[in-house]
Amino acid sequence: MKLYFSPGACSLSPHIVLLEAGLAHTIEKVDLRGKKTASGLDFRAINSKGYVPALETDSGQVLTEGPVIAQYLADLAPEKNLAPPNGSMERYQMMSWLNFVATEIHKNFSPLFDPTGSDDVKAAAFKNLGQRYGHLDGALDGREYLTGQFSLADIYLYVVTNWAGHVKFDLAPFPNVQAFQQRIGARPAVQQALRAEGLLH
After folding, report:
1. Residues 6+ apart with CB under 8 A from 52
2. Which domains does the chain have, with CATH numbers?
3. pLDDT by residue (tens digit) across 39-67?
């Protein structure tokens, strides 16, 4: 399998999953501005949407969208318990958190990375993030992980929350989230992925 990634982007989430699951893989960096891979390929020929992540499976098929790739990978290594079994209520609860992170956290960070974004749009994004992280801080009160057991949802939340410093979103009001970040960040697979992407030396 090959994961196409950009350092620190949401593609870091399936990268961590690959390592947590112990699955054989390679990675290839993508220049998102030029839409070129490190080997010189046109990335749009791999993923016509033009953004990471994209996973080329062993059969040659390409999967896109981080939460879907993460679930595919987790299901290849069920013994690692990165996702509850398909069809179980626990699986749907985890998927609920994946959707929350994708639509309520990830997408509210996006305007803050846009240099052409208006001040009003950015102010709304900061306000939304404050509300969403307030909810997360409550959900993490007295528990280590979103569903009570380490899962894909925790990995995805960790990755997008890492963006807070880049956009000057203050996590100080959310001590449970801060403790969560430290807990997930200390995992060996997370450290390995960060090093592989040049984010940790």
Report:
1. 4, 5, 6, 9, 10, 11, 30, 32
2. 2-80+189-196 (3.40.30.10), 89-187 (1.20.1050.10)
3. 999 999 999 999 999 999 999 999 999 99
